[in-house]
Amino acid sequence: MLELVLWFRRPAVQQTILAIIGGIFVGGFIVLKPTEREVLRVVPRPTSPPSDVRPGGLQKGVAKTYSGSVKQAAVKLGAHAARQEAESKRMGRLVREEVALVSPPPLPSHLTAEWMEAHRADVALAGSCIDQNSARKGEEVEDPSNEESPELCQARCRCLEGCAFFTYWPDGHCHAQKESSIPFTAVGAKSGPGVCGEGEAGSDGEEAEELLEVDVDIQPVDPGPLLYVYDLPERFRNGGKDPDCWTEDCIFGGPPETVHGIEIWSSNQFHMPRQVYHRFLKSSRRTRNVEEAEVFLIPAYTFKPDEKTQCADNQDLFDTLYQLNPLLKQKSWATEKGPRHLFVDARGWETCNYVWELKHPFRLFHRINIELNGMLPTGPEDWTDRKPFIWYQFPYPAVYHGHPDAVPAKLRKRGPAKYLWSFAGTGRGLAGHLRQLLMKQCTKCNSCSKQTSLKEVSGELHEFTTRDMTVEPSDYARLSDLKLHSTFCVEPPGDTVTRKSLIDSMVLGCIPVIFAHQELDMFEAFFTAEEFAAAILYVPEVRILGKTGKVSVFGKGPAGRKKKMLQSLYPNEAEVFNALDDPSEQTREQNMRELYAKAEKMSTILGSVSAADIRRKQDALAQIAPRMVLSTDDSGRDALRILLDRIVSEDKLARKRSKESNM
Questions:
Q1: Would you tell me how many other CB atoms lie within 10 Å of the CB of residue 504?
Q2: Domains delineated in the chain
Q3: Can you give the pLDDT at residue 172?
């Protein structure tokens, strides 16, 4: 009796008994813990091939037949086999003819050192949550797929509803399994959860201090240029129907809501001219002395050019400016101070005629609007090239109007967020097919979230009201919460090539994913194309659509003269700009489809970005995001202050451009 007790106390005996018991719960297939590169497997006598085991998978490499008994086999592999045999004899329980010693399958041919180097970002993202020599058994959420790496298999699981775990086999088969699946040891296989740990994924209960750093470093700014506002009558603003409300809440879409400690404003993108006008009126640098002023604002605008809110008549506007400031008629003064004048237009298309005026001195005036190229497939250069004036794209008003040094992108903690990516918007627009595909992929992906029930913003006058405090939360609050919890925010084109959501993502610290190359050098007044490239991810539209998807006018737009510059900034997509370097739209589209014949999933692309690269892009975004902020006052160096400084410094450039233009 004592000998029997001592026999049961042996570790080897206990491990074997536990393995046998565990094997009962995984359908009778028992795999003992492997030692180094060899494994001892104990297999029952099946009468037919097990239906729940994939051929070539779990039992691959085991000497067996399915004719009614397991083929008797014993392979002696040096000292290890001798030790296993001696242990088996002592245990007296393992039948020799039912034992097979096998080496793990060889590394698949595609998993070379070069392949691993190319996919090091995948490995970095996966971290330590992928278990080696491990598989799972249980119900799958859909049929297996073939993937190049366990990391891509994990990314697939992240995007399948109901997938909690994955198993990746050496032959590339990827199994997406439910939470009820059971783990077991299998040489060469790899398995793990769809998302690596709570620390990376985040949690629903995050508080403001968990999202943002509390320390804010407010930098002092010099006073800035003296500002002059032409006292134009109301008929020059929204056809005389400009709202008679001049509180901050009316101007910027308040009162603001608090989302994770951040003031979020329901700001209408088409009201940007009125916001600039408001800043000039309340600025501590405003002067009523036209001779000492350094920058001059012409407050003429309309939110939506139509019969109700018509653009100002050109001649009426210019005659009124001459009356208010007779110095404009003096050629010397007008030539010197003309470049310091500023036209502000609301839209990226349907701009008012007077901003295109080519007569002196109006051709010298600076121009801004919220989008330079509107619906042009060529990019900003066709909007402004060879024109006699300087015209900049000004940032869409974002949900944040606070101090630029306290912009959430600077304070947001670095690293992956709760969601890998998110989409905010609808399926309409010139790139509607791309939008619909992204929405569909996001719906099926556990690591993606979206907001698609957002109210359309058109610039109508009735939209110019304070926010209803009885309605909680607003669209903008929900959108902001989404972006604050997302690592990447996809920003496909809409009615035009860019959108307000891009600026919202930037200020909230969500890395923008750009699909149109026309956007890559838009904001030249505020940062360089190099700075933008460091902060965003460029994914050509056709890469998502594949060979058969409907490509938008932007997706096949010509690369233009900036081809070499874009290739240097986006070397991984250099062939894209070669494909777009053709005068024929049909040829460009064909080139792009051949380049990306097979569509890729957004989650797979984003899942391959390493945590280190994510942090680098977040740091780069924190550097440029303050320059996208339009604050409620002039206490910081925001987008308006940057613009004013440029206007003051560009006198010679403006006069040179006016002189060299043939228009």
A1: 28
A2: 2-102 (no CATH), 113-201 (3.50.4.10), 227-398+639-660 (no CATH), 405-628 (3.40.50)
A3: 92
